[in-house]
Amino acid sequence: xxxxxxxxxxxxxxxxxxxxxxxxxxxxxxxxxxxxxxxxxxxxxxxxxxxxxxxxxxxxxxxxxxxxxxxxxxxxxxxxxxxxxxxxxxxxxxxxxxxxxxxxxxxxxxxxxxxxxxxxxxxxxxxxxxxxxxxxxxxxxxxxxxxxxxxxxxxxxxxxxxxxxxxxxxxxxxxxx
Length: 177
Ligand code: IMP
Ligand code: MG
Fold this sequence. Notes:
Strand content: 25-35%
Number of domains: 1
Bound molecules: inosinic acid, magnesium ion
CATH topology: Rossmann fold
Order of helices and strands: EHEHEEEHEEEE
Helix content: 10-25%
Number of strands: 9
């Protein structure tokens, strides 16, 4: 990386936490099937690792979306650039993202998915910048809480770069955790 950076979670730390999350999910959904939805693009690496460690039957789908506007979630606009093709009515759905920041995008997606009447809907976030939250969302499966730092790697980008880093790094090393 040309920009200064500091590793926050190395590959081993990530793997341990992702495996533990997958175990929690597999235990909670024992005897059921789940539809795992990857929120592109940031979740693609986390998603691929997570689903491979889940032991209950899983089907996968992908959605690419961003939210814009302000004030309340109900008045925000959600732009879907790629939608799921699964009929999720009556299914157990996991909405999976690598990082939850303000929570606005996830809140909009949560509302949209709820309206499609799944049997259950749960949010999975590897990283949670909890003190950046501007809207309440239930994060059922959480990897790590982090402070307000801009992180890259493990699917997350800065200007579309660094998604391929196998670890999670803080972009500017002047930040401190
Ligand atoms: P939210 O709607 O503010 O929660 O935005 C969530 C999205 O913003 C994530 O899915 C990421 O794409 C992006 N994002 C938020 N924080 C970071 C970060 O620290 N690094 C990289 N992307 C981030
Ligand atoms: Mg981005």
